[in-house]
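Before a colleague's protein record goes any further, I have to sign it off. Would you go through it and say whether the fold makes sense for this chain? Take the sequence as given and treat only the C-alpha cells as open to question. The record follows directly below this note.
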Amino acid sequence: MPETTKKIPDDQLEAYFNNFTKLFLRDESTDVADVEVVSADIGDQPLAEGSHLIGITYDPRTKAVEIALEAGDHRVYQPSEVWVEEEFDGFVKAIEIVRPDGARDIVQLRRLGLRPID
C-alpha cells in the first residue's frame, strides 16, 4: 500500500500524536528519530540523529508539539502547520512542523525492531 502525506488540523493534533505514541512507541520501542531545523536564515541545523524516540505529544494549552527523545526533548511552539507522512499501517515516518516564521522542523522516524517481510 502507498504511503500517505497529510496535514493534521490544529484541533486534532493532541489526539493524533497521543494515538500514535500509544500504538507505536510504548513497550520499550526501538524507534529512533533524526531532528533538524531548516530555515532560510540559518540553513539546515541538525539537532538529533538516531536518538531513541520516547513519545510525541501536543499540548493545546501551550500550543506546543513536543518530541521526547532519549537525548532530550525538542519543542516547537505555536506551529502554523503540521504535516505527516504515514506508512501503510499508520506509522509516521516523517513530520514537518512549520513555525510561524516559516522555519521548518523536520523529524524523520525509523523503526529498528523486527518487522514483517513484505
